[in-house]
Structures are given as C-alpha cells and as structure tokens.
## 1
Amino acid sequence: MTKLSPLAVVPFVSVDSMMKLVLSLGVERFLTDLALYIEEDFKRWEVFDKTPRVAAHSHEGVIELMPTSDGHLYGFKYVNGHPKNARTGRQTVTAFGVLSEVGSGYPILLSEMTILTALRTAATSAVAAKYLAPRGARTMAVIGNGAQSEFQALAFKTLLGIDRLRLFDIDPVASEKCARNLKGKGFDITICRSAEEAVDGAEIITTVTADKQNATILTDNMVGAGIHINAVGGDCPGKTELHSDILLRSEIFVEFPPQTRIEGEIQQLAPDHPVRELWKVIAGQEPGRRTAHDITLFDSVGFATEDFSALRYVHDQLRTTGLYEELDLLADPDEPRDLYGMLLRAAG
Ligand code: NAD
C-alpha cells in the first residue's frame, strides 16, 4: 500500500508505469475492469458536462482537447490523429490526460494516454457490442491492423468470447504483426487478401483504418443482415470508412450525437437522420439489438467520458500498485500569496 503524496505533488503515470500497470494486472483484467468503469459512467450520463471536443485541424491531421466533469472530478485528454505519422516512425494517435478535483481545481493525476486510449477505445467497442452484436457471435473481421487492432481483438475476446479473427490491412506487414502479437491468446486467425475476404463469415466487422479521406472500406454488398459493425477509424470531418448506403440500412448507435454528427460516419447523412444514443441502451432505457436480422452500427468516435472513466480507473489503481512518479507540477509556497517570495528564496 502506497501513501499518496500531498496535494501539490501530482502523481504521474508514465508510459513505463502504464505498461507495468497493464502487465501486472493482465490486459484481460484491465479491459474487464475498465469496461465496468465505462459502463458505470455511461449509466450516469446525465450528470456529466458534455461538449463536442475542441479540434484544431490541419492538412496532415488533428489535435483535440476532450474535457468533461461529473461535478466532483474534471478530466481532459489531449489527443492527436495523424495518419501519415507512421511513415516517419511516429504513432497515428498519441495522448495524455489529466484528472482534477473540481473542489480545489488541483490535478490529482497526469497520465500517458496513448496506451490507455487504445484500451479504452477497445473496451468501449466491446461494451457497445455486448448490447448490439448478434448473440453467440464468435467471428470478427478486423480491417486495419495497426496500433489499435490487438486491443480491439482482446477486448472482444474478453468481453464477448470472440475467438476467430479475420484480418485485413492494405499493408500485409501490419496483419502479420497483429497475428504474431495475438499468438497464444486463444484466437483462430486468418490473414485475408481483401476486405471482401475478411468479412466473409464474420458476425462482427471492426473497421479501424487510418486515412484522412472519405474512404470506402466497406461497400453495401459486403454487409449482410444480422451483422454488427464496430466502425472505429472514421472519427474526423472528411475521414470516414463506410459507404453511406450501409448507414441507410443500419440501426446507428452513437456516443454524443453533437460530436458524432461532426466526426462520425453519420457526417455523410442528413443532420436529422435518426440515431440512437448508446448510454440509453447501457442504462436500460432502450433496447439494443432488436432482431437477429438488424444491421447494428456503433459509429465510434471516442467521447470524453470514456477517457474520464479510464483516468478514474488508473487513479484508483495508484494506491495499491504504487506505479507512478511524483511530479513537481504545482508551485507550493509556504504562504499561498507569497509566490514571488518562494522564487526569491530559491535564488538565495
Ligand atoms: P495505425 O496508423 O497504427 O493503423 C492504421 C492501419 O490502417 C494501418 O496499418 C494501415 O495500413 C491501415 N489501412 C489504411 N487504409 C486502409 C484500407 N483502405 N484498408 C485496410 N487497411 C488500411 O492507426 P491506429 O492507431 O490503429 O488507429 C486506427 C484508426 O482508429 C485511426 O483512424 C484513428 O484515428 C482511429 N481511432 C479511433 C478511436 C475512437 O475512439 N473511435 C480511438 C483511437 C483511434
């Protein structure tokens, strides 16, 4: 048991500490626990301050700030999305985040969130699929086999029992990497030569590609009745993955409609096209999948409450694991109003 430090010293979870935390708990347990936190926060959706994220777009990508608060805690994430980064040895998506006490405004956690985003995105996708995917589904196509893909596969195995994967990526090296990383995790894995081949026999289709354009990863003829689509990669204006005809045949579930209308697959539809809110399904106010023939679509863009849940979960692990460093982030003069005096004493 580790004692957390005084308020002025902020616990910092580095990439190294995050990896140790995930490995010490086990990826599967981390995903299971995190999914519970995410569900818990979706169930109390109405208490959160909600706003579409603040996005700074450029030709190459986007930098976004994602704030929310439940009245007691405040969290935000800084995240980028730069599909061309991989060519220069960088991640497409990197992130870090802060959790603070609303009462004092003092941060209580600063954390890496690149790994945490992959975990929370996968956990959220699997939570959505629990309510939306066809019962007893075992086979998932994963189109786009980059940084997010293994996390998606493991969340669907842990939370839904998916144990057959059909992988496709325009870069076969990515599919081989994904298959290699998932070896020994209990999957039957097929690497496919096309998206058409990958969706053949799949009950769930995850699209998690990165390309800054209106791409057509799935065409209408590739999606049969009863399929659940977990569309993760389309998350920015002008960056989508599905042909609009699929959207017209699907029952569409979203996180926060005002944000998804800007960023999700539904940016291709009329602004009043009906969509359903995932939180209402999780809170038991509305049914999820209604019939075995429905095409359900989770139009995932990633919402601030999911990052808030993830930061809350990581913060709750600090005491028992001690996996953090103490960051001298906040000035703390003995007399609060003597900030300049503190500077003078340091010079002396
Ligand atoms: P990545 O760059 O590591 O991997 C993307 C992969 O997609 C690459 O291997 C690339 O070769 C492949 N790809 C590109 N175009 C393709 C196509 N037409 N067909 C098949 N494969 C194709 O990126 P990542 O970190 O895995 O992220 C993937 C996507 O997910 C990004 O677009 C990112 O913005 C998005 N994302 C969404 C959320 C969310 O909450 N919805 C969270 C994180 C990331």
## 2
Amino acid sequence: MKKIVLGLVFLGLYACSQPTRETINADEALDYCAAQVDRTLHELSNGGSIDYTMMPRNIMDSLTVWHTRKTTKEEWTSGFWPGVLWYDYEYTKDQKIKGEAEKFTESLEYFAHIPAYDHDLGFLIFCSYGNGYRLTGKPEYKNVILAVADSLATLYNPVVGTILSWPREVEPRNWPHNTIMDNLINLEMLFWAAKNGGNKRLYDIAVSHADKSMKSLFRPDYTSYHVAVFDTITGNLIKGVTHQGYADNTMWARGQAWGIYGYTMCYRETGDPKYLDFVEKITDVYLKGLPEDYVPYWDFSAPGIPDAPRDASAAAIVASALLETSTYFEGKKSEEYWNAAVKMLESLSSPVYQCRESKPAFLLHSTGHWPGGSEIDASIIYADYYYIEALMRYKKLL
Ligand code: GLY
C-alpha cells in the first residue's frame, strides 16, 4: 500500500513537472478572432441589413475596411467567410454567429445547380457547407455538397488522370489540360462525398488526381510548380510553369503550402503511406527555406529578400496542416512538425501579423498575386480562414 501511495505521489509530481504543450494562448487568440468577426459583421451591416451575397475578400495595406465581392461563379474565395463564421460559432457557441454563418453559407446554394466553372468548388462549398454540415448535420447541406462534388467531377479528364483546373485558360494560353497545385484542396470534398452517400467513383478520381499531381507538379528536389500543362491526347506532361509565383523554376510559397495541406489530407483520407512520405519531403524543403519567424516570403526566390513581402496565408495554411501532420508521425519528427506549426502560430498571433485595432481582419501581410500586382501585403480572407482553423486544431490537440 505504502508503495502504491509513493508511486502515485511520484506520478503526480512527474505530471506537474512536464511542460504543457500550450505555448500560445489558444483562447486568447480565438477571443481576438471572435471580436474581429463581430467588428466585420458590424461593418457589413453598415447600420442597415447585411447583403449575404457580398463576401469579405481583402483589406489592402493602406485601407481599413473590407473590400467585399459578390458571390459570382468567378469569385473563388466566397466560401472562406462563411467558413470563418462556422469556426467562430464552434468556438463561441454563439447562436447569433450560427445564424449569420447559415445565411452567408446559403447564398452559395446555387453552385449545386450550375455547371462547374472551374476547380475551386471545394474551396467554395467545403469551407462553407462542409463546416456547416459538420456542425449542424442539416441534410440539405449534405445534398448541396454531394451535388457540387458531382459537378467538380465533370472536369476530370480520364486520359490525363486529373481535374482540369482552369477551363478558361485552355484557349488563351494554349494549356490544353491544366492542373494547378491549389486543386489538391478540392479533393477533400470528393473524398467526403464518396464516403457520405455520393458516387464511389469520386474517391478514384481524387486518388488519381493526387497521384498524377505528385508526379507532375513537383521537381526532383520536391519544390513545386504552380501549374502543370498536359497533352490531352497522350495524357503526358508538357511542362510545369508558374502563374502566381516568381518564375517557372522557383517555389511559390502558397503553392507549396497547398501541397503540404493537400497531401496530409490525402493521407488522412486514404491511409496510403506514400502520401505521408511525400508530405515529409515537401515539408522539409519548405521548412528549410523559411526566415526566422517561420512566415515565408511570398516566393522562396522573391526579388528583394529580405525586404520582399511575406505571405501570412501560406504560414496559416502550413500551420494548420502541420498540426495534423504531426499526429501521423512519432518521436522527433512529430515533435519537429508540432513545434514548427506552433512557431508559425506564435508569429501570426504577434502584433507584427495580427491586425488588432487597425482593421477588422485577423491577419496582415498576405500576398495574393504578386506577378498580377494584386493583393500584395494585404489582409486576405483565406489567411484568416486557415488561421482560425489552425487555432481550433491547436486547441483540440493540446
Ligand atoms: N487558389 C489561388 C490562390 O491560392 O491564390
């Protein structure tokens, strides 16, 4: 008996002496997000009623109010604001936020009834309806997701083995079949649909797309192209090029981030260890090239480094991914990925990257499309989405 008591005392002392995994205050960061969401809702109502078809998109460096965009089929970011509201509701349990999340989400319902315009349907529908269904279980939300997954699958080309990302670029650029890195994220909706009453073929499409992208969008050193261009007759790769990166042979930060997030998700959905091996390779090359605060320059070979703009959105995407990736590894590798993700969240939660009083978004310093001259060093809604997602994952994994 004496031995057992001594053992328990020892265990208690041991537990108390272990460092807590909580190195950033998740609740404080999520409370900050909740306050910024309230500010944004106030701004959107503008003293009257909210137009639920207008979504916050960005706040440029010199401005302090959201630039909103109509939920047209061409606007790829419309799912992120409803997604932010769903995560905020999950954290706060505030019924008012739930009501707003529903209304913004439901303004995207028409995507279930129109032909696919391009590949961004996963971003649009899985961030909004996907999170909405996860938190409410509403059957009508599930029906929208299933219909849109079928619509995304119409862009699949079986000769190439991937989804056509940008039908609009086929003719003007002579890119007969093009597949971009970002497209990996849309596969999550296909995996989900295949498991939740949709066509089982959607699973095979997602796997084929992931496998061919692995072979075509990455160089031998595991850095990535943004776009892979394929021959539609042979299905072979013609070339890898960039669109939003600095050059065809450089690593665009958000492109690599989509890859890390995408292949982590492919491993979760399939259990195939080849995806996890691959995540390790593409993550390690990304981590090796980061500046001290773990928030990348918008391209790893951007002109003007160290004064080049950063991309906080890439940091938020990778932080969210690596919190999950760390759970699939053991020992040192798991610890390395967890610590890297925490370092990213620490930087993003500091006054350097949080907007705080200056504007109602969560984060500053994202870069949307440097070669196109748009959204440089701005607050962008998808950075906020992946930041709040990462904070929720962090809180759940503590
Ligand atoms: N999907 C476009 C981007 O990452 O900017």
